[in-house]
Amino acid sequence: MHLGPELSPLERQEIEAECAHYPERRAAAIEGLKVVQKHRGWVSDGSLQALAELLQMPVGELEGVATFYNLIFRQPVGRHVILLCDSVCCWIKGRDDLNRRLCQRLGIKPGETSADGQFTLLPTVCLGDCDRAPTLMIDHQQHGNLTPEKIDRLLDQLQAPGGEDG
Amino acid sequence: MDKPLTGALRDDRRPLTLAEYRSAGGYRGLQQAIKNLDPEGVLQQVKDANLRGRGGAGFPTGIKWSFMPRGVGAPKPRYLICNADEMEPGTFKDRLLMEANPHLLIEGMAIAGYALGASIAFIFLRGEYTRAAAHLQRALQEAYDEGCLGSNILGGPFSMELYLHTSAGRYICGEETALINALEGRRANPRTKPPFPQVSGLFGQPTVVNNCETLCNLPAILAEGAAWYRALGRHEDAGTKLFAVTGNVRTPGLWELPMGTPIAEIFEQCAGGMAEGYRLRGFQPGGASTDFLLPQSLELAMDYDVIGKAGSRLGTGSLILLDDRTCPVAMVQNLTHFFAQESCGWCTPCRDGLPWAEQLLTEIDAGRGRPEDLDTLLDLCDQAGPGNTFCALAPGAAAPIQSALRLFREDFDAHIARGSCPYHD
């Protein structure tokens, strides 16, 4: 992605559509942050500044909103973001084994991005898929009833040349 | 058995289109409300049905609504918000409703909006529920196209706009005043009460926030009547509820059953009992923020007051089971990690107390605990208790710690005495 810090016409259009639902422009803060992240992968200082201006709110307050949420990224993330549930139902069903396998395969610790920039691994709170525990989410796609072997297959698919969206 | 929440669902859980929902009896409740009742009549029907909030607190929905100023001279606009920020560990009931039958929620919201005179409504959906978001968005479009939302709904005088807001992952947004701050584009800290949202809520206007499952009960109440709905319950409480079982059982899942169904029936007949090689040691009856109960409580009816009298809460009706091969200290550590992380940081007992409790539990689990740590834990729980914080997050975090210290004390003592976790030998 080679977008400058200023918002693109498409981003502005999508954010304005959200603003129309509210009597105050700042109410579209979360949606605005999500629009920016959808197009750029993360929210840079420059994007934050540009969005705050568009929403007519202080940039410090928008930063307070952005950093409050688990799914708004204020630093670059990998091409695929893996959200591994760390809450109680998945923990009982062995999520720690999945975590070990993911860290081993990707050569990173939770919270880090792999050296090739392909994967970011983030522990996340309950994904609400508890009858299929243990679960994780990759790029908005949920996977349940996981085992370390299934983790291998998932990563193999994503890492294969031409696999997934590669 | 009648299933007002899931009766129309397809086996494959594909979402019903508006036409399919209509042929399964959908939008009859809204029709009944708008054609044959005034808003007060709808409110009375919901009060008579004895519907209680399904988000965890169990507050009577009709009474909650009655605090909203209505009629001539009441402030405008008035707002209705569906709380679909389902993030309590172990809870996935609203997800099923929104993914598999989004029109049920839309109809329920139109009925509630009519009763409250709300001209604008929002669904506040957790960000991770991307499939629910897609299904709702499609259903909203159909509902607008068919006159079930927007101007002059079903040809009557009532108009309401309904928008979908998707959040970005934060448990505190499920607290209704924090949710309102989030929807205004502010940091989602809870607000001081009073004023209550019904008087001064979203953008300072009268606002009602109802849980998704609560709203999904309304179509059947209006279509079939309050007496019919009350009779669905097997004990004191009315209607049905989505009950979940997770942990090491044979078939974890989610089922719609009458209120007042004995826990043993849910555990044995629906979830198939414990998986091979596991024995039940205890359970949380209503999600991560509820006190543990022991196996002898399996005979209790899943009713708000029955579970309350037993020393826990019915909460979201999501049973989380502790088995004999899972360390209770580590389980409570996991639960406390969640609440400490998701604390918004507004109140000291929560912001500082919960990370401290998590740290103590981590030390005890690792075999580095001291006997006096247990007193410190109890003290932290007392300070996080009801009345010391703006919202219920901290008391909810204290519930599993306190009850585990009471019911599984020997496990805590063993960790400290041996200097290691007995479950990891």
Short description:
By secondary structure, chain A is α+β, with helices and mostly antiparallel strands. Helix content of chain A is 43%, strand content 11%. Chain A has 7 helices and 4 strands.
Please, could you describe this protein's structure?
The complex is a heterodimer of chains A (about 170) and B (about 425). The longest helix of chain A is centred in the N-terminal third of the chain and has 12 residues, at about 30-40. Helix content of chain A is about 45%, strand content about 10%. With about 170 residues, chain A is of the alpha+beta class. In chain A, strands 2-1-3-4 form a 4-stranded mixed sheet, covered by helices on one side. In chain A, helix 1 packs antiparallel against helix 2, helix 2 (about 30-40) packs antiparallel against helix 3 (about 45-55) and helix 6 (about 95-105) packs parallel to helix 7. Chain A is elongated, with a radius of gyration of 18 Å. Chain A has helices spanning about 10-20, 30-40, 45-55, 60-65, 90, 95-105, 150-160; strands at about 80-85, 120-125, 135-140, 140-145. In chain A, strand 3 (about 135-140) and strand 4 form a beta hairpin. Chain A folds into 2 domains: about 10-70, Arc Repressor Mutant, subunit A (Orthogonal Bundle), CATH 1.10.10; about 80-165, Glutaredoxin (3-Layer(aba) Sandwich). Chain B has about 425 residues and is α/β, with parallel strands linked by helices. In chain B, the strands form 2 sheets. In chain B, strands 3-2-1-4 form a 4-stranded parallel sheet, with helices on both faces. In chain B, strands 6-5-8-7 form a 4-stranded mixed sheet, with helices on one face. In chain B, helix 7 (about 130-145) links the parallel strand 2 and strand 3. At the A-B interface, helix 2, helix 4 and helix 5 of A face strand 3, strand 8 and helix 14 of B.
